[in-house]
């Protein structure tokens, strides 16, 4: 199961969960605490319990689009791209559903970034 692949990481206020531009092949799930999203030096939002961070990284080699900095003591669960691949190999049908959703989200992301595909 996917939950068996998750490992826990803790951050203290001021720690960076991820920095804009980093190529990290991990996705983060915020279980406890609070963090802020920062894009090009400007705080753009607050992340709370239940939020996910950097989902693109486990699907494609895409740099982090924003910085996430802990503003509280945070408990985060981490899923690596390699672990996701191992699970998906065991559950191929479910992987097809994930791929379908990913295509839609990637298309939306590319449109948001104004990337034209030929």
UniProtKB/TrEMBL annotation:
Pfam family membership, one: cNMP_binding
Domain Cyclic nucleotide-binding: 1-87
Molecular function, one GO term: voltage-gated potassium channel activity
GO annotation, biological process: regulation of membrane depolarization; sodium ion transmembrane transport
One GO CC annotation: HCN channel complex
Listed InterPro entries: cNMP-bd_dom (IPR000595), cNMP-bd_dom_sf (IPR018490), K/Na_HCN_channel (IPR051413), RmlC-like_jellyroll (IPR014710)
UniProt xrefs under PANTHER family: I[[H]] CHANNEL, ISOFORM E
Protein name in UniProt: Cyclic nucleotide-binding domain-containing protein
